């Protein structure tokens, strides 16, 4: 019996924990999930000073831009050949979709819903990645994927009930915006999984983020007045914190994780995100945590885990 048990290898998220490269991918994915999770906390804290979503997003990207420019220069010097026009065009589109549009929808949505619900909605992106892969790449939707969809969206419905009780009908509007951010981010994940092996994780991330940062700055210039730059020092501080800890660092961790363990597995590892956000939001923002919200969170996490937890011989 013991020999039989030892002959079985359990894999978490479809990879073996004994593989050093895949373990590094797991750790990178965890770091990315934690970094992105605290972003909602920074946003909510900044909103207390009256800053609007577009201005706050501009501060985040403005502070992040120099980091990515430096990384791009370093990576270009190390590269054997320049990025082709085809791949640069793909990176341009993914940068606009994944980091610009997704961030914009997310920041606006956070004005109407709690940080906990925002993270739960964003966390269902593995299920959307599965559906995109099925629609555009002909990958079969498995029984595990169907279960994941049912569990995840039931959980979102339960968590939504919690927010509607607090914020009213505007919570639905905010949830729709964040769901849109989730869809665009899922498209980015699928696309990046195809491009990163060809151009490199760090190069891809640097250029995609530079494109996104420039797009946000241009949008601010078109829609806001220069006087909107005058904000309390706390808004600048939260913008810088988001740039470093919730943009630059997790973006590179995410790309490196995708390179090592793939987009789907990286997405699944993000299970830590919702719980971290709900706990920190309760402690720092005094957001109410109800039984309905926690049950919803467990449904969502169980759904995403059902996509990736398998046993192999």
Which secondary structure elements does this structure contain, and how are they paired or packed?
Blueprint: H1 2-6, E1 9-12, E2 15-16, H2 20-37, H3 39-47, H4 53-78, H5 85-109, H6 115-123, H7 125-137, H8 143-167, H9 170-199, H10 201-223, H11 233-261, H12 263-269, H13 272-284, H14 291-308, E3 310-312
Antiparallel strand pairs: 1-2, 1-3
Helix pairs in contact: 2-11, 2-13, 3-11, 4-5, 4-10, 4-11, 5-9, 5-10, 6-9, 6-13, 6-14, 7-9, 7-12, 8-9, 8-14, 10-11, 11-12
Q: In DSSP terms, counting alpha (H) and pi (I) runs of 4 or more, how many helices?
A: 14
Low-confidence stretches: 1-13
* Mean pLDDT rating: 82
Fraction of residues in β-strands: under 5%
**What's the order of the H and E elements?**
HEEHHHHHHHHHHHHHE
Strand order of the largest sheet: 2-1-3
Sheet with the most strands? 3 strands, antiparallel
Tell how many strands the DSSP assignment holds: 3
The outline comes out as globular
Radius of gyration over all CA atoms, rounded: 20 Å
Counting structural domains, the number is 1
End-to-end separation: 15 Å
Helicity, as a percent range: over 70%
- Given helix and strand content, the structural type is mainly alpha
């Amino acid at each position: 019996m013991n020999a039989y048990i030892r002959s079985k290898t359990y894999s978490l998220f479809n990879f073996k924990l004994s593989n050093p490269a895949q373990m590094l991918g797991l750790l990178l994915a965890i770091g990315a999930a934690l970094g992105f999770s605290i972003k909602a906390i920074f946003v909510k804290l900044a909103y207390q000073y009256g800053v609007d979503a577009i201005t706050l997003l501009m501060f985040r990207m403005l502070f992040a831009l120099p980091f990515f420019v430096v990384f791009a220069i370093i990576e270009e010097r190390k590269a054997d050949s320049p990025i082709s026009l085809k791949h640069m065009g793909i990176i341009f589109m993914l940068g606009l979709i994944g980091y610009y549009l997704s961030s914009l929808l997310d920041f606006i949505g956070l004005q109407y819903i709690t940080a906990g619900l925002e993270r739960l909605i964003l966390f269902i992106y593995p299920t959307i990645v599965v559906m995109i892969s099925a629609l555009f790449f002909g990958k079969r939707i498995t029984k595990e994927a169907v279960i994941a969809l049912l569990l995840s969206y039931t959980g979102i419905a339960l968590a939504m009930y919690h927010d509607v009780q607090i914020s009213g009908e505007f919570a639905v509007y905010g949830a729709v915006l964040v769901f849109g951010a989730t869809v665009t981010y899922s498209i980015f994940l699928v696309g990046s999984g195809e491009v990163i092996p060809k151009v490199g994780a760090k190069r891809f991330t640097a250029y995609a983020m530079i494109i996104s940062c420039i797009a946000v700055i241009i949008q601010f210039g078109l829609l806001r007045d220069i006087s909107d730059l005058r904000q309390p020092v706390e808004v600048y501080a939260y913008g810088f914190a988001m740039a470093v800890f919730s943009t630059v660092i997790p973006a590179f961790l995410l790309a490196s994780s995708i390179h090592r363990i793939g987009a789907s597995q990286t997405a699944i590892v993000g299970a830590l995100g919702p719980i971290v956000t709900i706990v920190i939001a309760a402690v720092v923002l005094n957001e109410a945590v109800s039984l309905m919200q926690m049950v919803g969170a467990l449904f969502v996490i169980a759904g995403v885990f059902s996509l990736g937890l398998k046993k192999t011989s």
